[in-house]
Design brief:
The radius of gyration is 19 Å and the shape is globular. Helix 1 links the parallel strand 1 (4-8) and strand 2 (28-33). It is of the alpha/beta class. A 7-stranded parallel beta sheet has the order 3-2-1-4-5-6-11, sandwiched between helices. A two-stranded parallel ribbon has the order 7-10. 36% of the residues lie in helices and 17% in strands. Helix 1 crosses helix 6 (216-228), helix 3 packs parallel to helix 4 (143-163) and helix 5 packs parallel to helix 7 (246-257). It binds nicotinamide-adenine-dinucleotide (NAD) and uridine-5'-diphosphate (UDP) (2 copies). Residues 78-79, 174, 186-187, 190, 202-204, 209, 211, 246, 269, 272 line the site of one uridine-5'-diphosphate. Residues 62-64, 98-99, 102-103, 105-106 line the site of one uridine-5'-diphosphate (UDP). This is SDR family oxidoreductase. Keywords: Decarboxylase, Lyase, NAD.
């Protein structure tokens, strides 16, 4: 059955893969984006599809379209970008959620929120289950994103309880893959671009902090399963359980690119979480979902993509 599906943030990294997947299943997709961090290049290959429609729109403003399902992904996701205009970041999460929930209420659409592992902050519980309430600084430089996303979750659950809106909430852990922007600022794209260009690899802090990296196709599959599940509203963690230090990630990227880049230690940004790994017991049980792409396989595919964008340079050895 063809569905009419609205994807906000559809011209971004995750959103463009999601639009592609939904179209491939025969749905009609309305992509809404203000191109703050997304790009028309990410969706150029979809523009001739008669079932794809692009609307340039900022979700801070009301939006009147008809849809049966809504995926709300609009929000800058890289710390560099979300800290550039923190007030806009909070507004996008909060006003964006209100407007899209209002739309879902009016159209009786099911609406999924792209929440984040950042709701756990700098976690004292490891790995993080959905029941953990998190340790988040409300006034730091990451708060615009973390607290904005936490407030969006609150709005989703209040619209659900108060107005009966049919919600789904996914807590997405670090995800990477083709179509990340080369200047995105997140660690995987930074390390790959630096390796391909023979530049120093910028390790923030001592590089002992950990993250768990999920390949984009696995993540998109989790989002679609959650949206179509009748068994949970969430919140549900979606992420890969492999946990790596930033030093380990840098070493893997250097090996897979065959680069001769070296590591350069830089200051650790404020409130940078020390460890992060999802507990995905619920996703396995309820959605029969778990990631299938290893870090090495995923990095190889991502490196192939960046090689088409970035001119490879060898580092010139110092005398
Ligand atoms: P991205 O920056 O590539 O995509 C975000 C998209 O939202 C962009 O196309 C941007 O232009 C658009 N956007 C931003 N503000 C908007 C606004 N006010 N109105 C309309 N469009 C707007 O980031 P991404 O990695 O694709 O992340 C997508 C979503 O998933 C975000 O909500 C993010 O918080 C969430 N998420 C991503 C990750 C990850 O690791 N990639 C992890 C956790 C959560
Ligand atoms: N809204 C929207 N599209 C719709 C319906 C509502 O953008 O199709 C916005 C509307 O501008 C409102 C918000 O969503 O500010 C919240 O809607 P709700 O019905 O909860 O609020 P109300 O209209 O009662 O203030
Ligand atoms: N990081 C790093 N070098 C970079 C970019 C990021 O060492 O060039 C570190 C960053 O400090 C953090 C981790 O990599 O500890 C993941 O950062 P990212 O911005 O990708 O995501 P997030 O911090 O939101 O998990």
């Amino acid at each position: 059955m063809r569905k009419s599906i609205l994807v906000t943030g559809g011209a971004g990294f995750l959103g463009s893969h999601l639009c592609e997947r939904l179209l491939s299943e025969g749905n009609e997709v309305i992509c809404v984006d203000n191109f703050y961090t997304g790009s028309k290049n990410n969706i150029a290959h979809l523009m001739n599809n008669p079932y794809f429609e692009l609307i340039r729109h900022d979700v801070n403003f009301p939006l009147y379209v008809e849809a049966e399902q809504i995926y709300n992904l609009a929000c800058p996701a890289s710390p560099v970008h979300y800290q550039l205009d923190p007030v806009q970041t909070v507004k996008t999460s909060v006003h964006g959620a209100i407007n899209l929930l209002g739309l879902a209420k009016r159209t009786k659409a099911r609406i999924l929120q792209a929440s984040t592992s950042e709701v756990y902050g700098d976690p004292e519980v490891h790995p993080q289950p959905e029941s953990y309430c998190g340790l988040v600084n409300p006034i730091g430089i990451r708060s615009c994103y973390d607290e904005g996303k936490r407030c969006a979750e609150t709005l989703f659950f209040d619209y659900h309880r108060q107005h009966g809106v049919d919600i789904r909430v996914a807590r997405i852990f670090n995800t990477y893959g083709p179509r990340m922007h080369p200047d995105d600022g997140r660690v995987v794209s930074n390390f790959i671009v630096q390796s391909l260009q023979g530049c120093d690899i910028t390790i923030y802090g001592d590089g002992s902090q950990t993250r768990s990296f999920c390949y984009v196709d696995d993540l998109v599959d989790g989002l679609v399963r959650l949206m179509n599940s009748e068994d949970t509203v969430g919140p549900i963690n979606l992420g890969n359980c492999g946990e790596f230090t930033m030093i380990e990630l840098a070493e893997a990227v250097i090996r897979l690119t065959g680069s001769n880049s070296t590591l350069s230690m830089c200051p650790l940004p404020m409130d940078d979480p020390k460890q992060r790994r999802p507990d995905i017991t619920l996703a396995k049980e309820i959605l029969s979902w778990e990631p299938t792409v290893s870090l090495e396989e995923g990095l190889i595919k991502t490196i192939e993509y960046f090689e088409t964008l970035v001119k490879r340079k060898e580092r010139i050895p110092e005398e």
